[in-house]
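Q: What does the predicted 3D structure of SF-assemblin look like?
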Amino acid sequence: MNKSIQAWCEQQIVAMKVQFEDAIEVRTVKIHERLEVLAERITDLNVRFEEEKVRIPADIERRGRELAEMLRLFQEEFNVEKRERLEREARIEKQLDDHEHEVAGKFEVERTEREKRYIELARIIETNEKSRIKADGKFQEVVKEELQSLHNQIHIEAQVREREDDEIVEALNRYTAKLQSSLKIINSTNT
């Protein structure tokens, strides 16, 4: 039995060895194919690098010339712009000075006019104040007179009402006296 297990194990080992060698062979073929593709890619990259070695310095040189030209044009435009800006600033500064003098003159005229108007208004206010004081004095006198007149009228009215009240009381007293005398007469005839 040991021999048969050993034979069977040896067969399995041989079969696995064959299978392993086949797998290694397949992988070796695939690796060789990949290496060939990789070698082609490396060759292509080397060709591209060689092309880029030539193209990049030429491109850098061309762009350097373009940049130098752009810088020269920019410098010229900058100088022109600077000159024009200085001229504009000078014109603006002159306009500002002219406007400042004009505004200062108008301000002085306006200040003088306002001072005149202030003096005139102060005079009008003073005149109105005096007139108002006089009118207030007259008004107070009229009010005092009216109040005195009303006070007198109230006093007279109070005296008249008092007299009328006294007359009404007297009339009631007389009426009461007559009523009592009439009752005495009536009472004396009944007895």
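A (community wiki): The structure tokens above were generated from the sequence. The radius of gyration is 68 Å. DSSP finds one helix and no strands in the chain.
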